[in-house]
Amino acid sequence: MERLDQRLAELDAKGLRRRLRTLVGPQGPHVNLGGKRVLLLCSNNYLGLTAHHSVLAAGAAAAERWGSGAGSSRLISGTMEPHLALERALAEFHGYESSLIFGSGYLANLGVISTLVGPGDLVCSDRLNHASIVDGCRLSGAEKRIFRHRDLAHLESILASAQARAADRTLIVSDGVFSMDGDVAPIAALLELARRYDAMLMIDDAHGVGSLGPGGRGAVAEAALGGEVDIITGTLGKALAGYGAYACCSDRMRELLINSARSFIFSTAPPPPAVAAAHAALDTIRSRPDLVRKLGENAAVLRESLIDCGLAIGDSRTQIIPLLVGSATRAVAACELALSHGVYAQAIRPPTVPEGTSRLRLSVMASHRAEELREAAAVIADAIATTAEPTTAIALGTPIADAA
Ligand SMILES: *Cc1c(COP(=O)(O)O)cnc(C)c1O
User: Is 149 known to be catalytic?
Assistant: First the structure.
């Protein structure tokens, strides 16, 4: 018991103790946080579809028709028509032969990476990739090399090394839109390197879907490489307003995943209501391109307002906007101060981001109003200025030893 207390006290001392905040009511552009109405600037519900009438109706109807849960893993008795219908729709949406639904994006990345590579193989991973990719690389048992963030020359030097030539198979893996920085991977150049060095390319498009590319088809579609990138993963939990995730790939790859991705085999299938809700959200994205456009417009309004307030937004060109403040303690102080003025922008600290790059990570929704985003920018700029500490300059993407 004492040891647990000590570990928690250590987290407190470093400003790294995390606490859960509870929403009282549904999640929209504003939320009720413990009785107080605040502007929500830290949800991945980018298009606001968790409250859309057709999404809610589809979820409720699926609960009536298929039940509250799948009751089993996909390979036993957990595969139901809603799973297969959504897999067909997702494959078509992204321009792939096939897709396969997993329990979550975290599980999809574990399962896909450890299916694509194993001991004797090599995996090259961007330094700022999502934690689920980092864990997937570890789990795979493949040799892992981290390349500097979006640094193609560094990646190429790894691919040209003797180590790469000795590997049986090589995988390059990258976020499409980087989840804590809002910048976008150089997907076309990554694919060119992959082809030249006989490597596979995997892109995790968790944040691109619903925001980038024609009709919100994602960062891979924006690069016009749907069906070309060997495999993409995406989540049903963000713009798609449900829970679960998927991989898009070839038919043969889908067969292999079904037979060897342990996070697919040994975990219960996603509940039919969550799957049906995500399917309705996908249909809504297709029928309402104006929502995707509005998200882009809102993101531009917030980015410009923050810049007008004197803040730096890194290389973000999306709805994810990082405001670096440096230390974890300061990020938490700025977050609390903004919250007390009615703006909820979560502080993000190590190990989610590298040491010294704690930040407020803002995310915009299509359902925000431009005016409230402009006001929020001023509140946040004030909060950051008020909590200023004498600090050295911080660069985005600052490396840390065990970033991956
Ligand atoms: C959120 C996220 C995941 C995990 O998806 P879940 O469905 O929430 O488990 C994976 N990759 C990236 C880049 C993410 O941002």
Answer: no
Ligand 1 atom index nearest CA of 236: 7
Instruction: State pLDDT tens for residues 2-11.
Output: 799 999 999 9
Q: Is the CB of 349 under 6 A from ligand 1?
A: no
Do 168 and 144 meet the contact criterion of CB atoms below 8 Å apart?
A: no
Would strands 347-348 and 343-344 be described as parallel, antiparallel, or unpaired?
Answer: unpaired
Q: Which two tokens stand for residue 286?
A: 């297709």
Model pTM score: 0.94
Which listed residue (130, 238, 279, 368) is catalytic? 238
Count of other CB atoms within 10 angstroms of residue 388: 12
Report strand pairing: 122-126 vs 143-147.
parallel
Torsion of CA 303, 369, 291, 26, to 10 degrees: 110
- In the three-class reduction of DSSP (H, G, I as helix; E, B as strand; rest coil), residue 132 is classed as helix
Answer yes or no: are the C-beta atoms of 140 and 285 closer than 8 Å. no
Contact 395, 126 (CB under 8 A): no
Give 86-95 pLDDT, tens digit per residue: 999 999 999 9
**Among 27, 86, 52, which residue's Cα sits nearest to residue 287?**
52
Question: What confidence tens digit (pLDDT) does each residue in 294-319 have?
Answer: 999 999 999 999 999 999 999 999 99
Cα R_g (the chain), whole angstroms = 21
The edge-to-edge listing of strands for the beta sheet with 343-344 is 30-33, 36-40, 343-344
- The verdict on whether 125 is a catalytic residue reads no
Q: How far is CA 38 from the centre of its chain?
A: 23
* Paired residues of 248 in beta bridges: 99, 232
**Number of residues assigned to the chain:** 404
Which amino acid is present at 280?
A
Active-site choice (125, 179, 263, 367): 179
Cα distances (Å, whole numbers) of residue 178 to 42, 314, 349: 15, 12, 16
